[in-house]
Amino acid sequence: MGRAPCCVKNGLKKGPWTSEEDKKLIDYIHEHGYGNWRTLPKNAGLQRCGKSCRLRWTNYLRPDIKRGKFSFEEEETIIQLHGILGNKWSTIATCLPGRTDNEIKNYWNTHIRKKLLRMGIDPVSHSPCLDLIFNQPCQMKLSRLLLGMQALDNAELLKLANYLFSSSQQQNNPYFFHQNQNQESQLFINAVVSKGMTPFLQSTQFQTPFEEIKPPSFIPFSGDGKIVQSDLQNLSSNFDNFSNQNSHSNELEFHLPIQDYGNQQGCFSHYVMDYPPPSETTTFQSNNSTYLTYQSILTNLSTPSSSSAPPNSNSTSTAYVRDGFTLEDEKESYCSGIVKFEIPDVLDIN
DNA sequence: AAAGGCGCCAACCGCGTAGCT
DNA sequence: CAGCTACGCGGTTGGCGCCTT
């Protein structure tokens, strides 16, 4: 003989709870504690099944529930844990005191998921969503290609970014990827899967293995797996050259993984700059009226601890800079028309 | 001002698992 | 150990309120 049935559903109320029902449940639990949800509603004088009472208590009435908007830190935690755990909402909730699994799940489905999709990131795999990437009007979203390739070391990624750009240059067409979306999608899939990067290109247009490509604008990266400032400057000047040839305005993003952290989520540096890139004398005003030049931002890369990181950013030092916008605006928008640096403290930049 | 669309979120549903007899 | 059910979790739904046309 097993346990007695949970409840007889006939005659039990469903739907939204009234304040009277809430009060009955709270009063009963305050007096007797919770548990034994089967008998609780009867003892508390509620025409509800135990399941409904438990849900109402754990998701809404519990005194330690934190209500209100999710903070930036909470959102980042959710994204990172979801990347590791998947849809284990209850497990994720244990890392966010005061938040319920239901609340996190709702927030994911209504906010974070859409935000990731807008960024071209598959919310399930946390990898670049190639269909989205290659169907966007401008295909210079390098970060979205690089984001899922964190297993590669920095030198390889910089070379890859450079190659992608160089290919566009050769085509003299910023929409190169768009026009070749099917081929390029397949190439990227192959590249990600193989991770060996050879042979990188298999299309009829480009037969040259990745490592052998030496376009005129090829950048001499340091090649030892570490990013040095000159690499970034070379890369940005490369884009400068491109912007001079093309009047299209856009933004450029780079995600450069941290070699030591391998595939661990969030362990990459993120660079976004206006496109065409600013000149060395271009100034940006942050929300505290501090003027920064493009050159000084580059210089900041070598001194991440001095950047204007938001509070409680424990894994990265972040500088958000955009003329006329506040930090909160920046956090909301994530990208678009900005200069944004997320500089992990462990990033090894000479 | 009204109607339709859309987003949000509390609540429900169904299934897997743990635990009781 | 088998049978049965409560519990907990993830997926889904439906209603409310806000926004757009």
UniProtKB/TrEMBL annotation:
Main location: nucleus
Myb-like domain mapped to chain residues: 9-61, 62-112
Name of the protein in question: Homeodomain transcription factor
Organism: Lithospermum erythrorhizon
GO molecular function, one term: DNA binding
Compartments where located: Nucleus
InterPro entries assigned: Homeodomain-like_sf (IPR009057), Myb_dom (IPR017930), Myb_TF_plants (IPR015495), SANT/Myb (IPR001005)
GO cellular component, one term: nucleus
The UniProt record lists the keyword Repeat: yes
Gene3D superfamilies to which the protein is assigned, alphabetical: Homeodomain-like
Coiled coil stretches, renumbered: none
Pfam families recorded: Myb_DNA-binding
Keyword Flavoprotein: no
Keywords, sorted A to Z: DNA-binding, Homeobox, Nucleus, Repeat
HTH myb-type domain segment(s): 9-61, 62-116
Signal peptide (from-to): none
